[in-house]
Amino acid sequence: MRIYLATVVPKMKALKAGGIRHGKWHLTCYHEVKRENLWQEFLDFSDAVLVDSGAHGLQRGSRKIEWDDFTEEYADWIVAHDTDKVVGYFEMDVDNIIGIPKVEALRRRLKRKSKKIIEVWHRAYGWKGYVEMLRRNRGRIVGLPVFGSEDIKEEQVILFIQEAWKRNVRIHGLGCTRRRILRKIPFDSVDSSTWYNPVKWGQLQTIPGTIYIKKDTPISSRTALGYRTWLDWQKLYDAKGPLLRNLKEVMTGERVGA
Question: At the N or C end, where does the chain have fewer CB atoms within 10 A?
C-alpha cells in the first residue's frame, strides 16, 4: 500500500530547512503547484506523485468557477507538464455541484488529452455505476472517497475493493490514513495531510504512539519531524505489499503477479 503525503508543496521550504531533501510519494493539487510555481522542484523532491484537479476544494469558496474553462486549463497544463513520475491526474470531482452528466462530459474532455485521468466514484453513481467505472478502467486506478460525506461502511469498502481486484483495477482511498482503517482495509494506495499534524495540533503520530511536541519547537523542526515520521509509515505499509498480494489471491481466486 502506498501512502501519498498531501500538502507538501507549500511546506517544501520548511522541510528543506529541517534537513529533508527528498521524499517518496506525494499528492498535490493543480492550482497548488501553479500558485507556488514549484512543479519541477516538487518533482525533484518526489519519487512518484498524484495530482488532484483541486476542484473539490475550490467549490468551498465564494468565487464562481467556470468549470469548462477550468477543465480546459487543467487539461492543457497536464499536456504541458506530464512526466513519468506522475502516476495519475484526478478528474473534476464536482458532481455534487454540476451533476453527473456534466462531470462525465468534462471527464471525456480530460481523457482526450491524457490517458492518466483517474475517475472518482460517488454514492450517486450506485453499484451499477461503480461496476461500469471498473470496466472502463481495467489496469488503471479509480478513486474512492470512502469515509466522511460518502458514509460507506467498512464492510462495504471491502466489497468495493474485491470487485476492483477481480477486474484488475487499483483502488485509491481519498483522504484516508487513519491507522484503525488501514489495518483492516487493504487499499492499493491512500493519501492525506495528517503528517502535518505536529505543526497544526502539536501531535506527532509515531509508530509506537502519539507524542506531543512543545509549543516553542520551531516550525521547520516540527514540520520535519512530522514528515520523517510519515516516511516511516510509508515504509511500514509498503512492506505489507506481499501480504496484500496474498489477500488479493484469496479474495479473487486468481494469482497476482509479484
Answer: C
Query: Within a domain: residue 32?
Result: no
Residues 6+ apart with CB under 8 A from 135: 167
Compute the distance between CA of residue 50 and CA of residue 25 in angstroms, rounded to an integer: 8
Distances (CA, A) of 74 to 89, 122, 254: 10, 22, 38
Question: Could you please report the per-residue DSSP string of 45-100?
Answer: H-SEEEEE-SHHHHTTSSSPP-HHHHHHHHHHHHHHH--TTEEEEE----HHHH-H
| 258 residues of the chain, pLDDT tens digit each | 999 999 999 999 999 998 999 999 999 999 888 888 899 999 999 999 999 988 766 666 556 789 999 999 999 999 999 999 999 999 998 888 889 999 999 999 999 999 999 999 988 899 999 999 999 999 999 999 876 655 677 778 889 999 999 999 999 999 888 888 888 888 999 998 989 887 888 878 788 777 888 878 888 888 999 999 999 999 988 887 555 555 555 445 555 443
Task: Look at residue 130 and tell me if it is in a domain.
Answer: yes
Q: Tally the domains of the chain.
A: 1
